[in-house]
Amino acid sequence: MFHLKGIPLTVNKIHIEGGLDEFSQEGLDTVLRSALRAGIGFPYECNSGGCGSCKFDLIEGKIENLWPEAPGLTDRDRHKGRLLACQCRAATDLRIKVRPGSEYVPVISPRRRKAKLSSTGDVTHDIREFHFVTDGAAEFRAGQYASLAIPGVSAPRCYSMSNLPNVKGEWHFQIRRVPQGAATDVLFHRLRVGDELEIDGPYGIAWLREDSPRDIVCVAGGSGLAPMVSVACEASKAGMLKTRQLHFFYGARTSRDVCGESFLQELPEFGSQIHFHPIVSFPEQYPGITWNGETGYVHELVRRRLNDRMAEFEFYFAGPPPMTQTLQEMLIVGYRVPFEHIHFDRFY
User: Fold this and answer.
1) Under a CB-based contact definition with an 8 Å cutoff, are residues 221 and 323 in contact?
2) Rounded CA separation 177/180 (Å)
3) Distance CA 32, CA 89 (A)
4) Confidence of residue 9 (pLDDT cuts 50, 70, 90)
5) pLDDT band of 348, cuts 50, 70, 90
6) Parallel, antiparallel, or unpaired for β 294-295 and 196-203?
7) pLDDT on residue 2
8) d(C-alpha 230, C-alpha 243), whole Å
9) What pLDDT does 289 receive?
10) Which of 14, 54, 183, 341 could serve as 157's disulfide partner, Cβ 3.0–4.6 Å?
């Protein structure tokens, strides 16, 4: 196998100790992505070194550690020699110790695709939707994300799809501009219609469970809007909202950051089965924008609106880590919502 630039790439075998699972790592893939491409349920949540869910023990062989200081590893982990599969490449054949889980088996095997930018459009003052097109169908589940290899940026970045799977090969991403961010500087200021990059995916475990009979709650903050819009649109398309209610909560920092309602208004169930609940944490007023709605944090609004009904819902959420952590603790500890009814990814 050869890299796009003609550099020969190696193939290494990775065997999971105590089981029959064995898979190959090709080229520049990490251990984690190689396992997922092979259909193995390797535990993960963020795919970017932050959460620590993909820890494993190296029994035999040599690895290349891409980010030894990754926050997903504690000092104790490092002392015991644990590694993050999302930040390691095999330098030789490996034997590793990890416990795969059926819940992590990919519903669609991730793969790489060349993508061309077809159009862009602003969602808010600092969130822009980017439309890419690939050859072949865009295969993913509503709520999942992909990794984008952006020209001139050293490491891929993960972003959620805001649209639905389709045969046209259209991939939409709502991306928030990060001050001094290397990736968003390229995306917002240098990438032009017709330019190409690589999309690798889909990834993520927070996809819409169409077989659940429960009413749906989507909670988004910042650019976490994208996967929640996708979940809401898929629930509508699949006919789930004929018998279910969907509550869509959006937590914004200021009044000019509030968004999401325009996407939901395009769905036929808006106002009857779909209910939009925005909240602003710092209600500064801006010229032409007056905020008379809810103020505070989004988990507080979820509590006020749903309260003792909390355990009746299927929850999906995406946004900044403090938001997702607070929501998870509130739902599980405060309201005893079963963990299997809570769906989120940690890469934000």
Assistant:
1) yes
2) 9
3) 9
4) low
5) low
6) unpaired
7) 31
8) 19
9) 83
10) 183
- Tens-place pLDDT, residues 243-296: 999 999 999 999 999 999 999 999 999 999 999 999 999 988 788 888 999 999
Per-residue pLDDT tens over the stretch 209-232: 999 999 999 999 999 999 999 999
* H or E element that contains 200: strand 196-203
Comparing CA positions, the residue from 313, 283, 307 lying closest to residue 295 is: 283
330 in Cβ contact with 317 (< 8 Å): no
Evaluate the omega torsion of the peptide bond into residue 8 and state whether it is cis, within 30 degrees of 0: no
Residues 6+ apart with CB under 8 A from 81: 57, 58
275 residue type, one letter: H
The answer for residues whose C-beta is within 8 angstroms of residue 271's C-beta and 6 or more apart is: none
What domains appear along the chain, each with residue ranges and CATH number? Answer: 11-104 (3.10.20.30), 111-203 (2.40.30.10), 215-343 (3.40.50.80)
* Average pLDDT of the chain to the nearest whole number: 94
Q: What is the 3-state secondary structure (H, E, C) of 227-269?
A: HHHHHHHHHHHCCHHHCCCEEEEEEECCHHHCCCHHHHCCCCC
Task: Judge whether 277 and 248 are in contact, CB under 8 Å.
Answer: yes
Partners of 156 in the β-ladder: none
pTM over 0.85: yes
Determine contact, residues 293/196, Cβ cutoff 8 Å. no
DSSP one-letter code for 19: S
Long-range CB contact pairs, 288-296, < 8 A, 24+: 289/255, 289/256, 290/255, 291/255, 291/258, 293/258
Two tokens, residue 283 = 């209600």
Distance CA(187)–CA(133), nearest Å, equals 15
For residue 3, what pLDDT band results from cuts at 50, 70 and 90? very low
Q: Examine the pLDDT at 145 and tell me if it is beyond 50.
A: yes
